[in-house]
Amino acid sequence: MLFDARRDYARMRTLTVPEPVLPELLESLEASCLQLGEQRGWTRDATGAVNRALKLLLATQDTPGAPIEASTVAMLRELALPVQPTIDVLDHADFLTDNRTPAVITWVERKTAHLPAKIRGEICTWAEIMLHGSTITPRRHPRSHRTIRNHLYAALPALNSWARTRDSFREVTRDDVLAVLPSGGTDRSEMLSGLRSIFQVLHGRRLVFTNPTTRMKVGMPETRTPVSLDVPVLRSLIDTPNPTRAACGYLLIFHGLRPQQLRTLHVTDIVDGRLHIEGRKVLLAPQARAALNGYLAHRERQWPNSGNPHLFINLATAGRLTPVTGKWINTVLGVPAQALREDRILDEAHASDGDARRLADLFGLTVNAAQRYTATVDHVSFAEHHRRQGQSTDS
Question: What is the pTM of this model?
């Protein structure tokens, strides 16, 4: 090859796919596809589409027999062929080179594109170390995508301000940090936490001479008071004909699960009317059991052969083993799942006259977290809210 050129797979709509140079390799991958498809409940059409994708990839290889890059598989979208299932088959057969850029790194690059080049490079170094961790001193554990996003999002106002007069984090002083920090509250706490994370990583890699955030007091974020939801909102979730929405709604309204717990529940976590979750056994309310039975019947009709072990699945995850996203849960409910959990805990706090131990046992809260809810028991505005709710319900 004289140079690399991007393939135009869209042209294959009018051309005949040649036979692969290594037909025995295609047979091996097709066997892996059949095995994986049986495990995950793929339809015959889905399996056939993946096999067509595999044949096309092998027939157009520059080096026959070399592992296939994930970025090459992604180009098959031009032919409306399944990308992720094909990647899963290649990975299952140990025939994949995953050269994709993580979504969070792409997000970081997009958010910092307007900053000076040196600052962009330093931020990318920070993000890579946060994502993958480090085995050299100072060692660091990998952090989640959400942590990286939260830290950078909180630090962006400071970076935008420094970008006018600074070309690198090396030029940032303690006075510069103090000048951009909010006076207090959650904004100060989050911004300083984000900046401290960035400077700690860069200082550990000797990309900055000093850490200007050292010995700065972060302060405590503002405590947000939980708020009750209106009764009509809760009734709309209970009376819905949508079995998925009803099942999610009942689990949140009656048992106050965390959104993460709801997403990662397995079908096998429900045994004899009890929910086994994080070492606890939760006795399901009769209404919740009925809603779950309705959802399981719906799931069996919709995806009878799905091998996904998670309780809640959708069209995108039925043929895989991954859980649904938090965004999908909120879309199905039409209400943030966290708001429903808070409403349930708040109701229990008032019913138990502020028993923090009971809240901790029922919902897996820490003492400090439980006190956020018990502090509302004697709150005048909450008493008035519940009085009005009672009147509207009676009428």
Answer: 0.78
